[in-house]
Design goal:
alpha+beta; 4-stranded antiparallel sheet; 5 helices; 4 strands; 13% strand; globular; disordered C terminus
Length: 175
Amino acid sequence: MPKLLGHPWRWYWLALVVILVDIATKVWAVGEFRQGPPLQIIPGLLQFTYAENYGAAFSFLADAGGWQRWLFGIVAVAFSIMVTVWLWRLPAVKRWEPFALGLILGGALGNLWDRMVLGYVRDFISVYYNTWSFPVFNVADMAISVGATMLVIELLFFSERDGAPGKKDSEAEKV
């Protein structure tokens, strides 16, 4: 039986922490802001508010009539299974990539919980300036975004160092 904090369990624990923090902050936001005014964190830039997103990212398909809930749910389940298997197969020495995948998995499952239980995703973080505003988001969205950014950085800057075949390896094979 693998150690609970050994590979890959520690990354699943990270995903669980993201899920729990996401759900706790959403419950807090519903209690604080569903009926009340937004809380200005940085006036003119950042506030906590409450929004229900029936669609996907940036409210894509939000007013499609309800079928999108199940489509996005199926996509999230399939994606989460893929990430779970990906994490399991990574070498134990890796740190950056599995950390990123743990964040992504936790975020995907946090939003999946909302979508399946409530039919929508609860959002509460609002970034804006004058008349411009970014779509309202939540902790799960932040975890997914940070994890995806980390994966891009891994791919662009660290993949050769982690044992991926690079230019030096292919030149050595030619000789």
